[in-house]
Amino acid sequence: MRKISILAFTVILFGCNNEKEKIINAFNNFNKANIELDGEKIFELSDSESHNYYSNLLTKILRLDSIGISKLNLTDKMNLLSARAIIADSELKKISPKNLMIKMYTEVSSMDSVKIDSFKKLGVTNVRIESEKANGDFTIDGEALSPRVNLKFSKENGKWKFNIVSMANFTEKQLNTVCEYHGFSHLDYLEWMFSASNIGSKKIKELEDIWNPIIK
Question: Which of 171, 127, 123, 118 is nearest to 152 (CA)?
Fold first, then answer.
């Protein structure tokens, strides 16, 4: 009986560790797809809550006026204004949430050697599984952040998917820290970011047309 119990425990432990390894691989593969600007893979490796975020973002892009935009957090302002600046209005009116997500990762975002090196340092550890959901601690250079940043995963159709929304609070805090350090308002930060990005000078006027009404 004792041997059977030990064997059963070993099987359960192996299965749990195997699932944890799949979750870590899902996160690493998501980062790899991000580095390679592989939009289809990014969509495939992200969960339904992530996809719902872009569905809601598309609604905001199409419907919000300057007052509505001013009420968004900085991350959403940045995503919305970036999409309006990069993607033509005619395309936005007919784009699907999936294709919006792909374009946000492959056309609105850009990769350079600094960003690539940064992404290669990201990881997840201390994975905890509860049925079809899992959580893990976000790491940089193998060290878990303090305070802890909790990354979420969902098992959908038999595969573990990364929940990019679980990064939202961390991203928002980082952006606001940058604003506080430089004494930026949200609008100051957006103007600085767009002027320093790959959008190009011909798009700056369009961006000004978008955010100037917010000031009023």
Answer: 127
Question: What is the DSSP code (8-state) at residue 46?
Answer: B
Tracing tokens 């509860």 back to the chain, one arrives at 130
- Using DSSP bridges, classify how beta strands 159-163 and 150-156 pair: parallel, antiparallel or unpaired: antiparallel
The model's pTM: 0.82
Calpha distance 189→215 (Å, rounded)? 14
Question: CB under 8 Å to 184, separation ≥6 — which residues?
Answer: 178, 192
Cα–Cα dist 45/3, whole Å: 40
Summarised one tens digit per residue, pLDDT across range 95-128 is 999 999 999 999 887 788 888 898 899 999 999 9
C-alpha distance from residue 66 to each of 5, 69, 81 (Å): 64, 5, 11
